[in-house]
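QA checklist item 7 of 12: single-chain prediction sanity check.
[x] sequence parsed
[x] length recorded as 189
[x] structure emitted
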Amino acid sequence: MLAFLVASNALMPQSSLRAPQHSRLVGRRSFVAMGPVEPDEAWTATSSGLKYLDAPAAMGAGEPPAQGSVVTVGYTGWTMDGKQFDSGSISFAVGSGKVIPGWDEGISTMRVGGKRQMYLPAELGYGSTGAGDDIPPDAPLFFECELKEVSSGFMGAVKTVPGGWFGIILAASFIPYALPAELRPGFYN
């Protein structure tokens, strides 16, 4: 059976075996995560210059995160020339300025489970300074994001600490060393 599948694929034109770079449908839009595309009239544009397109099949549920809520976002980022510069997951407090301005604005209107493509002009990204060797100065950026979780209160604060609970426990273990020697428990001396 496997030999038949391999042989039948060998007979197909190679162009039909490749995944499409971007899939676009009129009316009901398809959303294929394959890298940067130039925004068109179907994208929502904000007054700041941010442009975004939500995946129709993954609009998400619930309310958008409130200012100060901690969100966890899965993402991939590209420069508009197609160079992927980062991919992963990040947790941050919305509206706190801990991420680039385009992210604070773009993520703040998403819902948990929602997927979004975002085009950020340079002033909403890293501006005229760029970011290391990966992002040149004045580079517009393209992101594909998924809002995975919204947290608030104590658990939200835990998510913003590098390492989460482990980071908190590790940091707390050094507290006795900051105390004067006469106040430390005996096993720390």
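[x] summary fact logged: The CA atoms of residues 176 and 188 lie 7 Å apart.
[ ] second reviewer sign-off
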